[in-house]
Specification:
The complex is a heterodimer of chains A (about 170) and B (about 100).
Chain A (H helix, E strand, L loop, with lengths): L4 H22 L3 H21 L3 H25 L12 H22 L17 H10 L2 H22 L4
Helix pairs in contact in A: 1-2, 2-3
Chain B lengths: L3 H20 L3 H28 L7 H31 L13
Helix pairs in contact in B: 1-2, 2-3
Classes of the chains: A mainly alpha (about 170), B mainly alpha (about 100).
Chain lengths: ~170, ~100
């Protein structure tokens, strides 16, 4: 049984995503972690395109790779952390964290392995196009939209106040 | 293609994020792992949205609106969180989270 093109693309994107996600948590240098996380975000954007969420893919790249990760890189380079080595004391805590994460992985895999859900078809649906999403957003979800604008305003004020140097 | 594949991928990414939060001591890396967990959940929401759209539901794009709001909240969280990290670094010259146990007393 040959693999379809969709499965090949899914496999390649997933392998790159998991390897670069492991690179985030295993690399010593924070700048390498940021670059690995950007690669992970691009593969997730590829998954969005495969799942007919074209608008979300574009927004994901703009917001995460364009804004959030640039902010992380700014902070890391501003504080000159890019060669920092973490102190190696309390190594058992690190092993305990890894074992806990692996145990959570096993529990979730065991719980959802037999989940009975319908398969998705490769055909195209127009749910992810911007006109459809815009209609849904401004008809059904207009109140959460306004609330999120208030959240943004308060986050902006909060960031300025926290970051302000006390005189 | 079974939607289980997307469930497994999301579980893997989410658990990598949890492991990173538990293992690392650098506050910035911990923050990035939180972003990774949020993205795993977003991917699962988009996969289920596609699944329901294939099943003929007309309101399947609601899940993508949810993903949109999660991105909004993540952006606000990053702005405030990085401001806090910069302040901690300015006061103690370190982003090691063991520094922050001085809140205990």
């Amino acid at each position: 049984m040959g693999m379809s093109l969709q499965q090949i693309v899914f496999g390649v994107l997933s392998i790159i995503a998991i390897i670069s996600a492991l690179g985030v948590i295993l690399s010593k240098n924070p700048v390498t972690s940021v670059l690995c996380l950007i690669v992970t975000f691009f593969t997730i954007a590829g998954h969005y395109i495969m799942l007919n969420a074209q608008f979300l893919a574009v927004v994901h790249i703009i917001v995460y790779a364009g804004a959030i990760m640039v902010l992380f890189l700014f902070v890391i380079m501003l504080m000159n952390l890019n060669a920092e080595i973490e102190p190696q004391k309390r190594n058992w805590l690190k092993y305990a964290g890894a074992i806990s994460g692996g145990a959570l992985l096993l529990v979730l895999l065991g719980a959802l392995r037999e989940a009975d859900v319908t398969p998705i078809q490769p055909g195209s649906a127009d749910i992810g196009l911007i006109s459809n999403l815009g209609k849904t957003l401004f008809n059904q979800y207009v109140v959460p939209f306004e609330v999120s604008s208030i959240l943004f305003l308060s986050a902006m004020v909060g960031a300025v106040i926290i970051g302000k140097r006390e005189s | 293609m079974p939607v289980q594949y997307y469930i497994f991928l999301s579980i893997a990414l989410f658990c990598i994020g949890v492991t990173g939060v538990l293992m690392r001591r650098n506050a910035i890396i911990i923050f990035m792992c939180v972003e990774l967990m949020l993205n795993a959940v977003n991917l699962l929401l988009v996969a289920f949205s596609k699944m329901w759209a294939d099943a003929g539901r007309v309101d399947a794009s609601g899940a993508q609106i949810f993903v949109f709001f999660i991105m909004v909240v993540a952006a606000a969280e990053v702005a405030v969180g990085l401001a806090i990290i910069v302040m901690v670094y300015r006061n103690s010259q370190s982003v090691d989270i063991n520094i922050m146990n001085r809140l205990k007393n």
